[in-house]
Batch of 2 targets.
Target 1
Amino acid sequence: MKKYIIAISVAVLAFWTHSHADISLTQKALKPVIVYQCGQELKDSKVWKVSTYLMQDTNKAKLEHNVCDCVGEHALKDVPASTLLKATVNEEAKNQLARQAVANSLKGCVQELVK
């Protein structure tokens, strides 16, 4: 029974993803994971630590929020629907997708916000 529920959920998500090209339900579901992963990546980054060392904590938090929100908005735009669907049911696929999405969009978002 559990397999049928998962199969139906995946089918519904697939339909929803294909019918709403701009922002899919799957992308909305994965955005918090991407934003969280972005925050973790920034906190672990030596470049981030050095470049924000002299910033006040409130300004650093605001910049981190803005950067990670940008990453969350743009990170999954060019990801195939099948990869998104796999990430919704497979924890390792979700983590891998989050890491890759953050890596692909982080630099662009930082550059966009620092201008």
Target 2
Amino acid sequence: MADSFEFPVDRTQVMLFARSVLDINPAFVEPDSPEAKANGGLVTPPTFVQSSAHYQPDYPLDLT
């Protein structure tokens, strides 16, 4: 497993992930929404971190 790797994140990736898991919480896509402001800005869905596997060079479940 890689010790470290870059996992670039922008709000579009967060929005696409939230849509893919059918989560319509405005805190994930609208920085001016009351939900985002209550959290200090946009937040990510709790399972978003799993997306980092696409950037991990030695991801053990990569079957390609």
